[in-house]
Design brief:
By secondary structure, the protein is mainly beta. Helix content is 6%, strand content 53%. The protein has one domain: Beta Barrel (Lipocalin). The protein has one helix and eight strands. The radius of gyration is 14 Å and the shape is globular.
Length: 110
């Protein structure tokens, strides 16, 4: 799916106020770069044009029931259009609920 390399995110117009970030894919991990910090997670790529990122473990002790329910969701990326350096995505909670959309643009290859 996404080859190893560094990417920037360009959100679609309705999400253009979302904070922009860059990330790097290296085999089975993804590193997010934002505001001079970074976070690395495991990823699962599959042939169904989707990308699943390992969830961060959150202490649910002080969360409301709604927050707990939302925390149990496992968002994933699906890809609409794929080219050599551009990957149009939809970030989803499930097949019916979209979080955002845009494109990953490959800016540096490994």
């Amino acid at each position: 799916m996404l080859p190893n390399g560094k990417y920037k995110v360009e959100f679609d117009k309705q999400f253009e106020l979302y904070p922009k970030f860059e990330f790097q894919i290296l085999n089975d991990s993804i590193t997010f770069y934002e505001n001079y910090s970074f976070v690395t997670r495991k990823i699962e790529k599959n042939k169904d044009c989707s990308l699943i990122i390992e969830k961060e473990i959150i202490d649910e002790t002080d969360l409301t029931e709604l927050q707990k329910m939302l925390n149990r969701q496992h968002p994933f990326y699906t890809f609409k259009t794929i080219s050599d350096s551009r990957f149009d995505f939809i970030y989803r909670v499930d097949l019916h609920v979209m979080i955002n959309s845009g494109k990953f643009v490959l800016i540096e290859t490994e």
